[in-house]
Amino acid sequence: MGRNRFVVQRKKRIDISDGDWIDVKEELNIGDQLDVEGAGMELSQRPGDNAATYKFAKPGDSAVMRVAIWLADWSLCDALGDKVILSREAVRRLDEKTFDEIRKAIDEHIKEKEKAREKENEGDSPN
């Protein structure tokens, strides 16, 4: 039997302000990676033109989609104290300060993963 070629969904819990937390995905599968890369883009093609191009539809959609894709769960509650189900629409409704805090936590998580991958690759390279 060969190696497992599928992403096993693991989560990492990150504490944020006010006692809340977010769970971020340890690794994205290829579908999620491609969604992040294409977030906020829309196909643009003129009638009769065979060349399709992509343009940013709404620049903010890219950041919202990226955060929504990396998040696996959260502890955030609404004004009545009920847990808000994680969705792209819920991410869009966050206040700016909370969104920035979550985005920065995800960015730091990604940087840590990249550093670990670089270190791992250094150990694999023959000298």
Give a structural overview.
It is a single chain. With 127 residues, the chain is of the alpha+beta class. It has a domain at 11-28 and 61-124. Helix content is 43%, strand content 17%. It has helices spanning 30-38, 59-70, 88-92, 96-124, and strands at residues 11-15, 21-25, 41-44, 53-56, 71-74. The strands form two sheets. It has a three-stranded antiparallel beta sheet with strand order 1-2-5. Helix 1 (30-38) runs antiparallel to helix 2 (59-70).
The pLDDT mean sits at 86
Query: What is the oligomeric state here?
Result: single chain
Overall morphology: globular
Helical content (DSSP H or I, runs of 4+): 40-55%
Structural class: alpha+beta
Portion in beta strands = 15-25%
Q: Would you spell out the secondary-structure blueprint of this structure?
A:
Elements: E1 11-15, E2 21-25, H1 30-38, E3 41-44, E4 53-56, H2 59-70, E5 71-74, H3 88-92, H4 96-124
Antiparallel strand pairs: 1-2, 2-5, 3-4
Helix pairs in contact: 1-2
State the gist of this model.
The protein has 127 residues and is of the alpha+beta class.
Task: Describe this protein with a few key phrases.
43% helix, globular, two-stranded antiparallel sheet, 127 residues
